[in-house]
UniProtKB/TrEMBL annotation:
SUPFAM superfamilies: Periplasmic binding protein-like II, Winged helix' DNA-binding domain. GO terms for molecular function: DNA binding; DNA-binding transcription factor activity. Belongs to the LysR transcriptional regulatory family. This is DNA-binding transcriptional regulator, LysR family. InterPro entries: LysR_HTH_N, LysR_subst-bd, WH-like_DNA-bd_sf, WH_DNA-bd_sf. The lineage of its organism: Bacteria, Bacillati, Actinomycetota, Actinomycetes, Streptosporangiales. Keywords: DNA-binding, Transcription, Transcription regulation.
Amino acid sequence: MEDLETRELRYFVAVAEELHFGRAAVRLGIAQPPLSRAIGRLERRLGVRLLDRNRRGVALTDAGRVLLREARAALDAVAAAARRTRRAGDPKRPLVLASKAGASHELLQRLLDALASEPGAAPVEVLLCEVGEQARLLRDGRADVALMHRPFDDLAGFDTEDLCVEGQVAILPAGHPLASRDQLTLADVRDVPDLPIARWPRLDGSYPDGPGPEVHTQSQLAQLVALGRTLLVIPASSRAWQWPEHVAVPVVDAPNVTTVIAWPPSSHSPAVASLVRSAARLRDTAPPSPAGPRTTRLRTAIAQKD
């Protein structure tokens, strides 16, 4: 069987995400008939049905769901190869560090200050993103390193170093009765009739069931909390974006969150290794966190890049 072409994968991903040939054709900038023929040829070459077509629309088969996952990863890898190759040809380019907007603010500031004080350190461009976007930015080559959070973010396939461990807080409207408490439990914040917990998208883009509003940006969430329509539980350091209309209350039995610095295992950049070492030094010289123990291990891979 011939190798799959990136054009075929792009066509299939568009149809699989839109679940509509017409919308996918518009998205791709092509006519619908050649798109339909291309998907049909792909199915015949693979020997499986990827899509169920009927009058109600288009649905993915089990084989189609597998190809969608693999095709996204393959297209990300191709895009990453092109971006990293172009950037490798520019020795003066800055490193791109991705971080969720509003998260790990103090740690990020300390890291940038430490890098700025190091002679010869590569300049760093900070790419602020929404929840869960760091993994895609690393995989497709738009970012060199990222600050991410275990257990919430997708760390599969990345090299990581633990930087700090912290507890979580509930962000509440200032006028809500729970906002006057010194501490809360998860039971306290679950199923509050007048203040349902906001729902973030899962890694596959779907939302968990529940009465809370579906949110996908920090600004959207902040305003909904201020309006008294929702609450959320987040790492304590993420309260940097807190509005005056918000109150943060510790949630004592919420699981601890570990902030990590992550990078693609294929990276051989001395600048990336230097940045990771700087982050590890900040971790090892910081006072112990009351939320949990600090990690003191440096990966052998980082030492080898020294």
